[in-house]
Amino acid sequence: MGSFINVVIYRLPREESIIYPPSRCPKCGHPLSWWENVPIVSFVILRGRCRECNQPISPRYPLIELASALLLTSCYLSFGLSLKLLWSGLLVLPLLAIFFIDLGHQIIPDAIDLPGILVGLLLSPWTIGVVPSVIGGILGGGGFLIIGFLAGKILKKEALGGGDVKLMAMIGTFLGPQGVLITTFLGALLGAIIGSLWLKVSGKGRDTPIPFGPFLVVGAYVALFWGQEIFRWYLGMG
C-alpha cells in the first residue's frame, strides 16, 4: 500500500495515470523489476540508487512506505480486525498522499478528497453513524468555506483553497463533528507555530503561501486515534 501511495503522490500532480505504465525510475524511465520494487528492502539492496542510471533514489519513498506500515498497524491496534480497520485505513492512506502532494505542489487533488467524502458517508452506518457523518461533512466543508470567504474579505486575497474545504468535508464524514473540531484546532495551532518558524528561518515574507493541508492531516490523525480521549479530557476540565 505504501508503494502505491508513492505512485499516487508522484503521478497525480502530473496528471499521469496511476495504473499504467508500471513503476519506473522517474529520472531515466528504467522499468522496475519485482525485486527492485519491494518496499524498503529494495531501497537498502540498491543502496538508494537506480540500478540503470545510478542516480540517487529519494529517501521519501522508503519513508512513505514505512509511514504507511506504521499507520495501518496503528489502525489495527486501535480497532482490531473489524470493519473499522478498513474504514480507518481508507482514511489514513489517502491523507498520507494528500500530506505530501500539498507539501510539494500546494494542491489537494479532487481525485482523492471527493471519493473520500463518498466513502466516509457510505461506511458511516457501520462506523460513526449516518447523522454524525453528514453533520461532520457539512461542518467541516461548510465551516471552512465560510472561514475562507471571511478571511479572503479581510486579507483581500485567497486565504483557504478549495482543496482545504473538500479535505475538511472528507475528514468530517469520517470523524464526525468532534473530529472536525479537533482537526481544525490542531491544524490551526500547528500551522501558526510551524509556519511562523519556517518563515523566520527561511527569511521569506509573511505573504508567502504555506500549504495548510499537511497540518490538517496531522490534526486528523490525532483526532482518529485519540479524539475521544481528548474530548473527554477537555469536558472533564470544565
What would you note in describing this structure?
- The protein is an all-alpha fold and 238 residues long.
- The chain folds into 2 domains: 1-81, no CATH class; 82-238, no CATH class.
- It contains 8 helices and no strands.
- Helix 1 crosses helix 3 (60-79) and helix 4 (83-105) crosses helix 8.
Number of strands: 0
Radius of gyration: 19 Å
Report the average pLDDT across residues: 91
Question: What's the helical proportion of residues?
Answer: 55-70%
The general outline is globular
Strand content: under 5%
For the biggest sheet, the summary is:
none
Q: Could you give the order of the helices and strands?
A: HHHHHHHH
The total number of structural domains is: 2
List keywords for this structure.
single chain; globular; mainly alpha; 238 residues; 2 domains
Structure described in brief:
This protein is an all-alpha fold and 238 residues long. It has two domains: 1-81, no CATH class; 82-238, no CATH class. The chain is 69% helix and 0% strand.
List the helices and strands and how they pair.
Blueprint: H1 2-11, H2 41-45, H3 60-79, H4 83-105, H5 110-123, H6 130-155, H7 162-202, H8 213-237
Helix pairs in contact: 1-3, 1-4, 3-4, 4-5, 4-8, 5-6, 5-7, 6-7, 7-8
